[in-house]
Structure to design on (269 residues):
């Protein structure tokens, strides 16, 4: 029987991740090139993870279902991305973003993970801007904010009605740069058939080439599953048809626990 273990650090909520970062084992920069990481998926999460890991010095293999990472369904996000930068000086904070997000999720989200999301939100905006995402700006040049999606303060950073598209292009540019530099080995038109688990740890994947049908195996020291939504497990969904349940189901069959599978997006909300 699988045991649900969230691996959330111990301690007070506001200090969990800060304390965890000070105690975690580090990898010497000279040793990072010895480790290989597989990233499955190349949307916003997959592209940015693969590019960032490669920039840190790890050897990365990136597998994407589509013919290009630009086909990822992250392109469909429009409204904006929230961060507790408090540019408007209207009382925003990490705690307020944490609370609003938790409340917006009907208090069913895992609190520790939501708090970590609120903590890193500020840095994520800076990373996206550094990758070339053309966020809307005020006349003086500062990044613009708007109140969006039930937030009580102005904390939403946006690029017209194309935020997802512009974020994806920025992440794709960073990924392409690392592919060109030799840090990332990109495999397109590749479907993950199975997850290889050794002693409870994901150590590789089996992949089918969607053009030739060839099946290959790939091993690594760690596997990142950034395979996106699975909304088309239901017929009525606003996800693209490629957003199916295959990758997450294969991880589930290998022992990964799956919480709240009924929580999928459909618009208008």
């Amino acid at each position: 029987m699988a045991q649900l273990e969230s691996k959330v650090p111990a301690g007070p909520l506001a200090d969990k991740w800060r304390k965890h970062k000070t105690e975690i084992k580090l990898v010497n920069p000279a040793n990072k090139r010895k480790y290989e990481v597989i990233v499955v998926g190349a949307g916003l999460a997959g592209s940015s993870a693969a590019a960032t890991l490669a920039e840190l010095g790890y050897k990365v293999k990136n597998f994407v279902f589509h013919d290009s990472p630009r086909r990822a369904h992250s392109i469909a996000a429009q409204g904006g991305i929230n961060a507790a930068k408090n540019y408007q000086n209207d009382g925003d904070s990490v705690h307020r973003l944490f609370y609003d997000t938790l409340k917006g999720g009907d208090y069913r989200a895992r609190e520790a993970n939501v708090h970590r999301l609120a903590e890193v939100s500020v840095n994520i905006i800076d990373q996206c801007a550094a990758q070339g995402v053309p966020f809307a700006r005020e006349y003086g040049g500062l990044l613009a904010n708007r109140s969006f999606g039930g937030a009580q303060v102005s904390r939403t950073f946006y690029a017209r009605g194309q935020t997802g598209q512009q974020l994806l292009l920025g992440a794709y540019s960073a990924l392409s740069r690392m592919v060109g530099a030799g840090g990332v080995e990109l495999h397109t038109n590749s479907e993950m058939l199975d997850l290889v688990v050794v002693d409870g740890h994901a150590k590789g994947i089996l992949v089918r080439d969607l053009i030739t049908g060839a099946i290959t195996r790939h091993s690594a020291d760690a596997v990142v599953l950034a395979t996106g939504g699975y909304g088309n497990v239901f017929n009525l969904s606003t996800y693209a048809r490629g957003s199916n349940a295959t990758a997450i189901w294969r991880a589930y069959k290998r022992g990964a626990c799956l919480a709240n599978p009924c929580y999928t997006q459909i618009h208008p909300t």
Observations:
- Residues 79-161 form one domain.
